[in-house]
């Protein structure tokens, strides 16, 4: 059903409402936020001593000039920003813990983060799967998705991939994803930016209806027109991180006038002309918008503004909230996630499978690169496997095999992961699913890709370079390749989760080049300097290389063929002494690789957890 302008009541809200919620209030007291500048060790205050209360049933508009701290305030209230924040967040006068605030507050940021391989409708459907409880039947979910498509004006692009929609459509979709679960408190950062007047009105009207049904909704709003202003019940106006107004929209101008801040505030004749013209065209927009912005943009030394700010800071809490227990009023039956971990895992796997099948470029490229390198290696080292005269060349095959696995695994992870992890952080902070479910899904999805891509390489090279066709050797070699590939993959995910694509690529090269030195192939343990030796003992490349050498030449392999009169390395014992691996212990290599896997998997987990927790 399309929403008619000027008729917000026509929004089909009934099915979007699950239960009626009693009135409540989200309030914050003495909220300050500062940043330390690393370069000159100075400290800037971004939000100073802000207090206020947003009541359910009323749509709150947060206004102020660019850089006033509007987005920062929403980041702080939503819990997205936690470091260097002081103050209290309360529901009905009861302090809201961090965990609890995550349960009740949803936040739609200015930047959109969408899965590029999904269509608009699919994105909403997956959001519905994650955010709506299983008790809601699929038909009802379908109705909600369809309603949102219409209300947000996305019906015409429902089947378009999110990578192809316009900026405004992407913005509306990102709001829709959060609207689906009908959260108790919604903080929206510029929900109308990028939208035309009609769409902006529709979004605001929809949001107002949600507020009217007992939600707290606060949104940063830029340049609202008179119709949009009529929808905004309360205004919270910021100037350089300080509050200059909080209260009903209609009373703002009067409040400013009490401090001699009457419109127009500036007396530049040129500006005055502009003011007059604007006033003639659209009086209400002129009064609210220009008054708010002009006052907020005044010099902080302006006496009138100073008095106004002092008054606002003095009069922080005129509302006396009822002392209700948050537990009873809010959390009684409120679950952080709509689905169990297992159910979350199921939906995550479904979504990833769909994205991978649709956007299979990365996967195909990885397989093709592996085949190409495998064929080149096979041509270069054809039939070396059982030739004692070419044993060094054959050892090179083993190390090339490991490098190919390393680079294809790490590069595909660092290229794709930074963007994916940004979406994960956003969805996770908004309680779509837990880190545990996401991490499990990631492992389940990555493992088959890794097995397939490294097996392709390994099998081609193994066959054409004539390595021994014994199941024990094939199995042990494959296991080393797989574990090494998993280490590379985890390293890629770790880099991708903590840094940008560019930095991850540089760092992965920085890791691998010295790691080659520590493989034991170029500098055997015996010849390593005192400085190099400790690095060889911890190098995962060395353990993988040793494991591979053991798989191919260990386990009491018979002497090699010698096509010449004399081959020094015909007896494998001599070769193993030469590469400084006389007493090979395959299981120790596996144990060391396993240790690395556990370490890196833990590191990836904790780095993702840190990202969810940090600002
Ligand atoms: N981590 C940070 N380090 C340094 N400065 C910061 C940091 N976070 C915010 N700021 C500064 O705080 C001020 C407020 O930023 P914020 O993004 O909240 O403004 P805004 O009112 O939302 O602006 P806009 O309307 O342009 O989006 C800006 O001057 C910004 O540069």
TrEMBL record:
Membrane topology, from the record: Multi-pass membrane protein
Assigned protein family: Belongs to the ABC transporter superfamily. ABCG family. Eye pigment precursor importer (TC 3.A.1.204) subfamily.
ABC transporter domain segment(s): 26-265
Protein's name according to its UniProt entry: ABC transporter domain-containing protein
GO MF, one example: ATP hydrolysis activity
Record key words, sorted: ATP-binding, Membrane, Nucleotide-binding, Transmembrane, Transmembrane helix, Transport
UniProt source species: Anopheles minimus
InterPro entries the UniProt entry points to: AAA+_ATPase (IPR003593), ABC2_TM (IPR013525), ABC_transporter-like_ATP-bd (IPR003439), ABC_transporter-like_CS (IPR017871), ABCG_transporters (IPR050352), P-loop_NTPase (IPR027417)
């Amino acid at each position: 059903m399309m929403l008619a302008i000027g008729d917000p009541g026509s929004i089909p809200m009934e099915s979007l409402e699950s239960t009626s919620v009693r009135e409540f209030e989200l309030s914050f007291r003495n909220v300050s936020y500062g940043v330390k500048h690393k370069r000159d060790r100075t400290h800037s205050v971004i939000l100073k001593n802000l207090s206020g209360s947003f009541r359910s049933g009323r749509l709150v508009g947060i206004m102020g000039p660019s850089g006033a701290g509007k987005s920062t305030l929403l980041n702080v209230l939503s819990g997205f920003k936690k470091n260097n924040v002081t103050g209290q967040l309360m529901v009905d006068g009861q302090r809201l813990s961090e965990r609890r605030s995550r349960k009740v507050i949803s936040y739609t940021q200015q930047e959109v983060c969408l899965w590029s391989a999904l269509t608009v409708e699919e994105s909403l459907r997956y959001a519905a799967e994650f955010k709506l409880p299983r008790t809601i039947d699929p038909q009802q979910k379908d109705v909600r998705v369809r309603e949102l498509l219409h209300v947000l004006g996305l019906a015409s692009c429902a089947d378009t991939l999110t990578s192809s929609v316009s900026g405004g459509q992407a913005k509306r979709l990102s709001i829709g994803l959060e609207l689906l679960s009908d959260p108790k408190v919604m903080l929206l950062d510029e929900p109308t930016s990028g939208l035309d007047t009609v769409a902006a009105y529709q979004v605001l009207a929809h949001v107002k209806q949600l507020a009217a049904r007992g939600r707290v909704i606060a949104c940063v709003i830029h340049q609202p027109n008179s119709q949009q202003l009529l929808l905004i019940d309360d205004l919270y106006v910021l100037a350089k991180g300080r509050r200059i107004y909080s209260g009903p929209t209609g009373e703002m101008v009067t409040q400013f006038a009490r401090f001699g801040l009457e419109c127009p505030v500036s007396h530049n004749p040129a500006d005055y002309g502009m003011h007059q013209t604007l006033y003639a065209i659209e009086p209400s927009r002129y009064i609210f918008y220009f008054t708010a912005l002009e006052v907020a943009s005044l010099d902080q030394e302006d006496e009138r503004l100073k008095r106004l700010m002092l008054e606002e800071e003095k009069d922080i809490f005129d509302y006396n909230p009822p002392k209700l227990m948050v537990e009873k009023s809010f959390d009684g039956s409120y679950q952080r996630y709509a689905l169990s971990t297992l159910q979350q895992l199921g939906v995550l796997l479904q979504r990833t499978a769909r994205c991978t099948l649709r956007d299979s470029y990365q996967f195909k490229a990885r397989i093709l690169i592996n085949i190409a390198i495998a064929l080149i290696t096979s041509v270069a080292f054809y039939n070396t496997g059982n030739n004692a005269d070419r044993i060094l060349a054959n050892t090179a095959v083993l190390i090339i095999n490991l490098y190919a696995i390393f680079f294809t695994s790490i590069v595909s992870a660092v290229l794709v992961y930074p963007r994916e992890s940004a979406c994960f952080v956003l969805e996770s902070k908004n309680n779509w699913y837990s880190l545990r479910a996401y991490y499990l899904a990631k492992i389940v999805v990555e493992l088959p890709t890794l097995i397939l891509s490294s097996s392709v390489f390994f099998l081609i090279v193994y066959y054409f370079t004539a390595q021994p066709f014994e199941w024990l050797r094939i199995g042990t070699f494959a296991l080393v390749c797989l574990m090494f590939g998993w280490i590379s993959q985890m390293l890629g995910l770790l880099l991708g989760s903590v840094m940008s694509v560019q930095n991850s690529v540089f760092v992965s090269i920085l890791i691998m080049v010295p790691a080659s030195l520590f493989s034991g192939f170029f500098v055997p343990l015996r010849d390593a300097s005192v400085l190099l030796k400790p690095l060889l003992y911890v190098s995962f490349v060395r353990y993988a290389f040793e494991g591979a050498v053991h798989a191919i030449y260990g386990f009491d392999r018979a002497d090699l063929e010698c096509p010449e009169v004399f081959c020094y390395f015909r007896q494998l014992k001599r070769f193993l002494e030469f590469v400084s691996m006389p007493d090979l212990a395959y299981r120790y290599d596996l144990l060391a690789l396993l240790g690395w896997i556990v370490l890196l998997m833990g590191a990836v987990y904790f780095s993702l957890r840190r990202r969810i927790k940090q600002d």
